[in-house]
UniProtKB/TrEMBL annotation:
Keywords: Membrane, Transmembrane, Transmembrane helix, Transport. NCBIfam families: SP. The lineage of its organism: Eukaryota, Fungi, Dikarya, Basidiomycota, Agaricomycotina. The chain crosses the membrane at residues 50-72, 79-96, 102-126, 138-157, 169-192, 253-278, 290-311, 318-338, 358-381, 401-420, 426-444. It is found in: Membrane. Belongs to the major facilitator superfamily. Sugar transporter (TC 2.A.1.1) family. This is Major facilitator superfamily (MFS) profile domain-containing protein.
Length: 473
């Protein structure tokens, strides 16, 4: 008989296939747009067109993520994921059959609607079905599948680039469509979030779900804790305005800040445009830059695994502060190398000397490794778990909106930025990362080993303490 813990891991693994979809897109979109088969079918894209095409998915995802909180509250977490996966399937099918640039843009916008919804709701779902002892490990399953998808996306594009027809760049979209259908079909059999059931007043159903997902049959203490927390807040419908009320403003702003500024570290400039980065650093051929990009995908995956195993032992502050210092230092070093040995010729950035070129390549890999074990995993968990159950869906919608909007900005401008200034992008990303690290050090309470209800009490006490400053009465 399958244990309750194994059941949770299996549910998390299947649900996180939504992350695999996002990773496949992230890993394959840059390489496939560099294929000669793509240019032959659609035409050559300028740096501006490339940025628009890659980034437009993030624009629709940001709008979708803002609506995802309402969808998750009304439809439930599991049907929010199911409907999002169906939308992804529609968008990727249109991408796979597109014959011009306009059709690709429309298809990518549709895909973004589904991606924004599924990623936002999966994050909530995983946090809410997990017991506190393994919540970090379960919640990182989504990021693990994203990294698997990124690595797979690079190599799928590398393999399909050998095809002589337009199927070379269409194949990644076909694979994504098949997986999206699989996710939608399987979600029909997943359990509801017990916290969502309690929020809806369906207490007996919540008890049944908890009994299936916990090691013990006696789940009354956990159920009563959830009920008490929600009843203290009342069962009235949560509103977006309440997320920013005086009672919750501290944690709401912290979560939104972390999720938004996570993207200013430059990770998506690396993941989306890795072929450009590696060609600037000395890989001249298309397939060589594809292969180098694939190696970064493997590093991304390998260094996500330690976080998957030990995030609940490390806590939340150590990975964010230690990881932040490490990834900022990598980009600071790359920027310095480009400032000393780089330049522009015929509108293209170059880096002189085999030593500096290999140093930049190694530093890019080190950046990806350090991001993978730290920020990639912990920020999403922390931003979600610090919000109270009743407001979690709507708060996470704002958080994901910030993430998508900044992601869109970086993806849109990165091709132009990378080709306009040899060192500027790296110095900018490094400075932004150091800033976030300082915020984490001074303003981020540790939540290691706490239940969602205990985390709620920490922030409630901090709010009360700030309202009763000595001498203010």
């Amino acid at each position: 008989m399958v244990s309750a813990t194994v059941k949770i891991y299996l549910i998390a693994l299947y649900t996180s296939l939504a992350g695999l979809l996002w990773g496949l897109d992230t890993g394959s979109i840059g390489p496939l747009t560099q294929m000669t088969q793509f240019s032959n079918s659609i035409g050559h894209l300028t740096s501006g067109q490339l940025g628009i095409y890659v980034a437009c998915i993030l624009l629709s995802a940001s709008v979708s993520s803002l609506c995802s909180g309402h969808v998750a509250d009304v439809m439930s977490r599991k049907y929010g994921i199911l409907s999002g996966a169906l939308i992804i399937a529609v968008g990727t099918v249109i991408s796979a059959s597109a014959k011009n640039f306009a059709a690709l843009i429309c298809a990518r916008l549709i895909t973004g609607v589904g991606q924004g919804q599924t990623i936002s709701v999966v994050t909530i779902y995983l946090c809410e079905i997990s017991p506190q002892e393994i919540r970090g490990t379960v919640a990182t399953m989504l990021q693990l599948l994203i990294t698997i998808g990124i690595a797979a996306g690079y190599f799928i594009a590398y393999g399909s680039s050998r095809l002589n027809s337009s199927l070379a760049w269409r194949m990644p979209f076909i694979i994504e469509a098949c997986i999206a259908v699989l996710v939608a079909a399987g979600m029909a059999f997943m359990p509801f979030s017990p916290r969502w059931l309690v929020q809806r007043g369906r207490y007996e159903e919540a008890r049944v779900v908890l009994q299936k997902l916990r090691q013990t049959e006696n789940v009354d203490d956990e159920l009563n804790g959830i009920r008490g927390n929600l009843e203290d807040e009342s069962l009235q419908q949560a509103t977006f305005a309440e997320v920013f009320s005086k009672r919750y403003i501290r944690r709401s702003v912290l979560g939104i800040f972390l999720m938004g500024f996570e993207m200013f570290c430059g990770i998506d400039a690396v993941l989306y445009y890795a072929p450009i980065l590696f060609s600037q650093a000395g890989f001249s051929s298309e397939r060589a830059s594809f292969l180098a990009s694939g190696v970064s995908g493997i590093i991304n995956l390998v260094f996500t695994i330690p976080a998957q195993l030990w995030v609940d032992k490390w806590g939340r502050k150590f990975p964010l502060i230690g990881g932040g210092i490490a990834i900022a230092s990598c980009f600071l070093a790359i920027g310095s190398l480009y400032a000393a040995h780089g330049g522009k010729a015929d509108g293209e950035v170059y880096l002189s000397g085999k030593g500096p070129q290999w140093a930049v390549i190694i530093l890019i890999y080190m950046f990806v490794a350090n991001f993978s074990w730290s920020w990639a995993v912990v920020i999403k968990i922390y931003a979600c778990e610090i919000m109270p159950t009743r407001l979690r869906a709507k708060a996470c919608a704002f958080q994901q909106l910030a993430n998508w909007v900044v992601n869109f900005t970086v993806a849109l401008t990165a091709p132009l930025f990378l080709r306009a200034s040899p060192s500027g992008p790296y110095f900018f990303f490094s400075s932004a990362t150091f800033f976030v690290t300082l915020v984490c050090y001074f303003f981020m309470p540790e939540t290691k080993g706490m239940s969602l209800e205990e985390i709620e009490m920490i922030f409630e006490m901090k709010t009360r303490d700030s309202e009763h400053v000595p001498g203010s009465e």
